[in-house]
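can u do me a favor
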């Protein structure tokens, strides 16, 4: 007799999926393989790396397919970079001032 899989008729425990089957007396219940939260760390890191890589490739493609010339694009990027740097410095100075005020109040 060859094995053709669980019987489709009847309600025997062999027809149930392993996670729903009742263990025989004296046997341990089958364990489901569920990833633990600690196992998700490497997956999250790989996903984050993929997102960063996708953003970088998208930005590169956008620069290559931009409707303006290379000189105009470089000037625009330099201008935006200077503006962003200036805003970053201002934000750090504001944060430093707030922390100094909070320290004085304490």
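np, heres the sequence
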């Amino acid at each position: 007799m060859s094995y053709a899989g669980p019987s489709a008729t009847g309600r025997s425990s062999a027809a149930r999926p392993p996670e729903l089957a009742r263990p025989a007396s004296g046997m341990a219940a089958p364990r489901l393989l569920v990833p633990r939260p600690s196992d998700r760390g490497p997956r999250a890191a790989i996903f984050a790396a993929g997102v960063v890589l996708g953003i970088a490739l998208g930005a590169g493609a956008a620069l290559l397919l931009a409707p303006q010339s290379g000189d105009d694009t470089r000037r625009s990027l330099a201008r935006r970079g200077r503006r962003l740097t200036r805003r970053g410095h201002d934000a750090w100075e504001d944060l430093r001032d707030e922390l100094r005020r909070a320290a004085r109040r304490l």
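Helices lie at 40-64, 70-105. hope that helps!!
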